[in-house]
Specification:
The protein has about 260 residues and is of the alpha/beta class. The protein has eight helices and twelve strands. It is elongated, with a radius of gyration of 20 Å. The mean pLDDT is about 95. It binds nicotinamide-adenine-dinucleotide (NAD).
């Protein structure tokens, strides 16, 4: 079977460079194009420190897709860039694997229409790390047995959105699984601002510090006990088995599919 032809958008970013390395090392796929706003004309393999790949960084996504005949696009850019990228690529019939966070319900609705029109599937994962997916599943299980729950996420200081897509998705899945069980939290008379963002009755807190990559705690409280489920991302390689799995599976999906658990 021929290799899956992959284009990486945001290729020079922290995640993009990991994807470039992972795709180059994986069986059955091939990096055919790299798009970014920086390092234009440079070989992406050299930038990723794996030696020249013969793939130059380009700025124009549509041109890059046409020239490379890419079949699967992987996007790790920015919340304010992802929709424009998908509006350009999906109508060209390219299946998309989206790691960029910050997509809202209105965006998903538009993506469903785009995907239906072109027939190109779109896979979105707020978190490609298997441990994070398990954390979300365990949290949905635990929430049925506790009255109180809060989420604290920790990310590096340059992350531009807060709270993280993972924290929001965790809280939303927990809210659905709780079936009304969670107690409404009484607010303090003073200092409500420091109580985090409400997702139903769950409060979500975002910490931004250098030295962290992506970490999250889900904490439950009940009579005389607490339960903490914690996931730590040590480095960005943790996301790559999930990304390469998505590259392999995305063309077999239909429409817009959200969450790594859907393809594991
Ligand atoms: P980064 O800032 O290091 O990299 C982003 C790259 O995208 C940069 O090189 C930038 O030049 C490029 N870029 C920006 N706009 C672009 C455009 N319009 N076209 C092409 N390239 C463009 O950021 P990062 O840490 O690599 O994270 C990227 C995204 O991935 C963020 O949204 C982050 O939250 C998300 N993320 C998701 C996961 C996951 O598992 N889903 C994990 C980590 C990070």
């Amino acid at each position: 079977m021929s290799n899956i032809r992959v284009i990486v958008v945001g290729a020079c970013g922290k995640m993009g460079l990991e994807v470039v390395k992972a795709v180059s090392a994986a069986d059955g796929m091939e990096l055919v194009a790299a798009v970014d706003l920086i390092n234009l004309g440079e070989d992406i393999g050299t930038i990723a420190s794996i030696g020249p790949l013969g793939v130059e960084v380009q700025r124009d996504l549509v041109e890059a897709i046409k020239r490379s005949k890419a079949q699967v696009l992987v996007d790790f850019t920015r919340p304010d860039a992802i929709m424009a990228n998908l509006r350009a690529a999906v109508p060209m019939g390219v299946a998309a694997v989206v790691g960029t966070t910050g997509l809202e319900e209105a965006h998903l609705a538009e993506l469903r229409t785009l995907s239906a029109k072109s027939g190109a599937p779109i896979f979105i994962a707020p978190n490609f790390a298997i441990g994070a997916v398990l954390m979300m599943q365990f949290a949905q299980q635990a929430v049925r047995h506790f009255d109180y729950a809060e989420v604290i996420e920790f990310h590096h200081e340059k992350k531009i959105d807060a709270p993280s897509g993972t924290a929001l998705r965790t809280a939303e899945l927990m809210r659905a699984a709780a079936g009304g069980r969670l107690a409404e939290q009484g607010m303090p008379e003073l200092g409500e601002d420091s109580r985090g963002m409400p997702v139903g009755h769950i409060r979500v807190h975002a910490v931004r510090l250098p030295g962290t990559v992506a970490n999250q705690e889900v904490i439950f409280g009940g009579l005389g006990q607490t339960l903490t489920i914690r996931h730590d991302t040590i480095n960005r390689e943790s996301f790559m088995p999930g990304v390469t799995l998505a590259i392999r599976k995305v063309r077999g999906l239909e429409g817009v599919v959200v969450g790594l658990e859907q393809i594991m």
